[in-house]
Amino acid sequence: MSTPAEAATEREELTKIKKHSRPVIAIAVLFGGMFALLMAIGLSISFGAADIQLATVWTAVFQFNPDLTPHQIIREIRLPRVLGAAMVGACFAVAGALMQGLTRNPLADSGLLGLNAGAAFMLAICFAFLPGLPYMYLIMYSFLGAGLGVGIVFGVGSMSRGGLTPMRLVLAGAAVSALLGALSEGVALYFRIGQDLAFWYAGGVSGTKWIHLQIMSPWIIAAMIGAVILSRSITLLSLGEEVAIGLGQRTKSIKLIGMLIVLVLAGAAVSVVGAVGFVGLIVPHLTRFLVGHDYRWIIPCSIVLGALLVVLADLAARMINPPFETPIGALIALIGVPFFLYLARKGGKEL
């Protein structure tokens, strides 16, 4: 049971959270972001080698006619692609928000802490030793790879003197990601599967099929619901572990469940789009800047803004040098690297 002084400190911390929470702006971000996302999805579907009017997009979605070629293009190629982009953007963004809240590390991101590299490495192993493996099993191996990557990063980071600081964790993540990337390339060269893996190295959603969405949707929906349910506990945990325990939170259980959700989100996203980094770094910080420090708002807003970022990146990837496509991982890195350097220059202060 907490002492009067501890109870006063807890009340003070909760007051700070409420003071820095902006629910009105959060609601505006949610509705404005969803409107912008729908517009971006419409533009993304209409733009391509075959120009399609927005009105045709509407009829293809709601009054599908299999005899019309534009409808077939939209239904079989462009719609799964743009929905896949939205889903993986939301996955990366929420995974980053959860990791930052759980670890109180502003530099946490699935790409920077080895999850993406671990999932990509496991995919390389699957392509080499289990060719033709159904996507249902690929996504499971991707989860395992993400867990392997983050486990090694935390293990290596814990070995350093002085404990896990944000910067040490990121350095360990960079080293482990480089190692797993080199091993993936070695596997690709030895087994001559470099062409198959090039897609995952560069990052892109052009290969997204309905079967991918059908298989990963239940996992992603369950993980998103879990993240929303966990959001209040993460807000309290972001105040500090002692404060969270004082408020009756089971911090170990919260961290375990939170990391399992992160593994599912990052693993599912990498299995579709490849090892795209920085989405989980940029979006949570932007969201926190807009809506405050309450994760009950950060998580849903990150879903919308993460989806919007990757859909726009995919659209830009097709517009820069048509008919060729620029990898969306490279485009997002153009924003992500300066943003990371900015955060690192601030000293990686805890959230």
What does this structure look like?
The protein is mainly alpha-helical and 351 residues long. 77% of the residues lie in helices and 0% in strands. It has 14 helices and no strands. α2 runs parallel beside α13 and α5 packs across α6 (135-158). The longest helix is centred in the first third of the chain and has 35 residues, at 69-103. It is globular, with a radius of gyration of 21 Å. The mean pLDDT is 82.
What's the gist of this structure?
By secondary structure, the chain is an all-alpha fold. The protein is built from 14 helices and no strands.
Counting DSSP E segments of at least 2 residues, the number of strands comes to: 0
Per the principal axes of the C-alpha atoms, what is the gross shape?
globular
Helix content: over 70%
Largest sheet: none
Mean pLDDT across all amino acids: 82
Structural class: mainly alpha
SSE diagram, text form:
Blueprint lengths: L3 H17 L2 H24 L7 H9 L6 H35 L11 H15 L5 H24 L7 H26 L2 H9 L7 H28 L3 H6 L4 H23 L5 H13 L3 H25 L8 H18 L6
Properties at a glance:
351 residues; mainly alpha; 14 helices; globular
